[in-house]
Please model this.
Amino acid sequence: MERENLKNDLIAYLYGEMSTEERLLFEREMESDPELAKEFLELKQVRKGLSHMEDKEVMEPFFLWGRNGVNGWAGSFKRRSLVLFKPFIAVAASLVILLLVGYVTQFSITYQDNQLLIGFNRIETISPASQLTEEQVINLVRNAIEQNNERLLTLIKNTEDKMDTRFASLETIQEKQPEYPQTANTVTDKDLQDFYQQMQQTNAVIMENYLRNATVQQQEYFQTVVNQFTGYLQDQRQEDLRLIRRSLVNLKENQDQQQQETQQILANLLNNVNYQNN
Amino acid sequence: MSETLRDIAINHSESLVEKSQKGDNHAFGKLVGLWFKRIYNFTFKYFGNHDMAMEVTQRTFISVYDHLGNLKNTGSFKYWIYKIAINQCHEEDRRQKRRNWFSIFQNDDARKVEEIHMDPEKEYHQKEMEEVMNSLLKLIPEEQKVVIIMKEYEGMKFREIAETLGISENTAKSRLYYGLNNLKKMISKSGMNLEKF
Model:
């Protein structure tokens, strides 16, 4: 009982519904009971969490309160009870649609002679396999095998002919090939000097090309870096513009809401005037 | 809690109630205008869902219109309208349970709370916090939830809550205590830091 009272006092203190005397007494109680003080702080934090849920702005539905009064309004909402039947109405409507589609497309499902037949329009029954005799089946299989064998033999013969022709053409090419010289010329000092000079010239050309290419590549790289930086700045600018646009949209939404509220007030005023005239 | 002009008007609705009882539909319109936002926010916190809150708010006002003549003491309109709103919330709860019985995809609030805590960085953001608290409120027992909403968001005194619900003040305090404690436990269980609220 004591503990229960303490809980009630804690709640009353938490919500400031205590007289000054009670409050002072309870504060003294908390000083002597650290557990109670801890509990108070925890509940205070929970209240802080709850304070994150703020009131939502909502506009009441606008209705003209004429001679018929609220009956029209109430009636319109009572019709909302139809909402409860919505799922059943939806199922019934779906069934009707399915039946109609089935009727139009002549959809049918039948079961006969161990066959389940599903289809549109008229379903033609498949003639049962038992109408063929065993001899006819054997003949059909034999004919099919013979035809396949003949086709395979023809294919093999054609391939052999093609291969013979290829071999013959290869032999002809081999006979026509010239013989390469077996000996190399003797190398002199002059030839070596010429070769050395030629190499130097080639190297100089290669180095020149290398340096030129390196310069071009560096220029391209620098250009890429500059482009990327420009792109980054452009992105930043776009982001800033998006932010500004979003802020403007928010501003417009607020303005629209205010406009709606003004319209409602005007409607109420109009309603008042009508009412007073009546 | 600072009192706005609307709050003052709400607390002095007696004349409008009396006129409405005499069949003045214009006065009833004004009464709806005064109370609509309060009742909507009450039901919104109860369900955490705009559509349901709108539905229940409208049903509440239809019921108020139908039974206003039965209200003897116009001074107790405030408690009376909340009582109707609570009854409508209970009815809607029952309807939802019936609907959920047919539904395969039931709303698992407990799982939703766990999912919310997947992203700790967002936890402290106002919007996220609102969602978290909204989800947690759905999980506590109905009688505790009603008292929390009435005290925290409607700013009612314990005496007023007791009168509206037909209970003693101590019971109201007790329900609030257990409700807040339940919330505290759920917050700790979900891994959130109470101190960073």
